[in-house]
Write a structure and sequence with these properties.
The complex is a heterodimer. By secondary structure, chain A is mainly beta. Chain A contains 4 helices and 6 strands, in the order αααβββαβββ. Chain A has one domain: Nucleic acid-binding proteins (OB fold (Dihydrolipoamide Acetyltransferase, E2P)). Chain A has a 5-stranded mixed beta barrel. In chain B, a hairpin with a 2-residue loop joins β5 and β6. By secondary structure, chain B is an alpha+beta fold. Chain B has one domain. The N and C termini of chain B lie far apart (40 Å). In chain B, strands 1-2-3-4-5-6-7-8-9 form a 9-stranded mixed barrel. Classes of the chains: A mainly beta, B alpha+beta. Chains A and B meet through α3, α4 and β6 of A and α1 of B.
Chain lengths: 133, 282
């Protein structure tokens, strides 16, 4: 219930307007486009790995309890071609991530938009909720 | 309707981040790229030729960004396929045999998509993956290196015949032999691992799971229409899975900015099996 409290549900229509940089995996097998999430937290780790990069953030709920969330991004190759590197985010950066939650109910999701809270900069567009494309 | 809108959103995001989009690796433009009056690559210049006078297909290619509405293909050319659906350009559904139509329904969701499993992609996937592919045209063979999943196809152009079915062993990419018809490289491929292969990822033409069998004979016609554009017309002839052959187009655009292929080791951090409940999550 507390986790639910930190999930800010945004309009599905908004998420569906986000274009993928690279869609490698079968989105529908892993994530639920009907369960959008928008979470703010502090970066703990960026796995710059194939076939998808993953970013992990600590998210605090209303009671102060912290949960570590993992978000799947595009492939490092696709992100590099969009101008990003493995140094674009570092532990401690505070970000807000919009995406679609994992179907398995874990604290994982697919990231579609990441916003750096300090600058408002958008980065790391992720995979497509409508994949396969 | 959605694509132009999403493209605008992406453009807005990119435009908002100019400081970051410059964080690219060093570009190494290749010699021989024709330039326009503005100094930029001239993609409509004539296609280059090899020393022996053949059209040269070599280069790094990205799939087209062109979108085609189903049934809107101009007369005289095959409809455009997508990675998700090799029949996306047809007004009607593909001519699936009944069992094949049933299998597509079961595959919906992509649970066993070979691409997601880091296995070799099917023909409708590897020509349409958003990651690039490099064609290396040699006198006796042409190699296609697909960045995604590190796939390699060898197309023999030394005059050999296509082998009989069953020899050699079935290949994920089939066995390919090419010949030139004018400026078009015609590639015939058979001896595929079809749905009989035993792996749930076997026999996927596209990401929706349109199946193919070991009876598939695929014909690809590669034609570099100019410096910047390559058309690949693909005919799927698999009477076990489809009631008639069909032909689709897959378009490629040259990468002319000097950027290169990037290493892609798919199993490095394969989370798909974990996320779909087939391996333990952390």
């Amino acid at each position: 219930m507390k986790i639910r409290a930190v999930l800010l549900v945004v309009g599905v229509g908004l998420l569906l307007t986000v274009r993928p940089v690279v869609a490698h995996h079968a989105f529908a097998a892993e994530f639920d486009a009907e369960k959008p999430v928008k979470l703010t937290g502090s970066v703990t780790k960026l796995d710059w790995t194939n076939p998808h990069a993953w970013i992990y953030i600590d998210v605090k709920d209303d009671g102060g309890k912290v949960a570590n969330w993992g978000f799947e991004l595009a492939s490092p190759n696709g992100l590099m071609r969009s101008g990003w590197t493995r140094f674009s985010l570092k532990p401690g950066d505070v970000v807000t991530i919009e995406g679609s939650r994992a179907k398995n109910g874990s604290t994982n999701a697919n990231a579609q938009v990441i916003t750096m809270n300090s600058t408002g900069q958008k980065l790391f567009s992720g995979a497509n909720p409508q994949a396969p494309q | 309707m959605k694509r132009p809108c999403t493209a605008l959103v992406l453009a807005a995001i990119v435009a908002a981040c100019p400081a970051v989009t410059s964080a690219q690796w060093e570009l190494r433009p290749r010699p021989g790229v024709p330039k326009g009056a503005d100094g930029k690559p001239n993609l409509t210049a004539p296609a280059p030729r090899t020393a022996d006078g053949k059209a040269d297909l070599s280069g790094i290619w990205m799939r087209t960004t062109r979108i085609e509405k189903p049934g809107s293909t101009p007369a005289g050319q095959p409809p455009l396929a997508t990675m998700g659906n090799i029949g996306a350009g047809f007004k009607d559904e593909l001519p699936y045999q009944p069992w094949a139509a049933e299998l597509v329904k079961k595959r919906t969701g992509g649970y066993d998509n070979p691409d997601a499993l880091c296995l070799p992609q099917g023909p409708g996937q590897f020509h349409n993956d958003p990651q690039p592919r490099e064609i290396v045209q040699l006198p006796q063979k042409t190699l296609i290196v697909h960045e995604s999943n590190y796939m390699l196809r060898t197309i023999y152009t030394d005059g050999r015949r296509l082998p009989k079915l069953g020899e050699p062993q079935p290949y994920w990419h089939g066995y390919s032999v090419g010949r030139w018809e004018g400026d078009t490289l015609v590639v015939e491929t058979n001896n595929f691992r079809g749905v009989q292969g035993g792996n749930p990822g076997d026999g996927w033409l596209d990401s929706r799971g349109s199946p193919f069998t070991d009876a598939l004979q695929m014909t690809e016609r590669f034609r570099r229409v100019n410096f910047g554009n390559l058309h690949i017309d693909v005919t799927i002839n698999d009477p076990k899975a489809y009631s008639r052959p069909f032909t689709v187009r897959m378009e490629q655009v040259i990468v002319a900015d000097g950027s290169e292929m990037i290493e892609f080791v798919c199993h490095e951090n394969q989370m798909f099996l974990k996320m779909t409940g087939r391996e333990a999550l952390k």
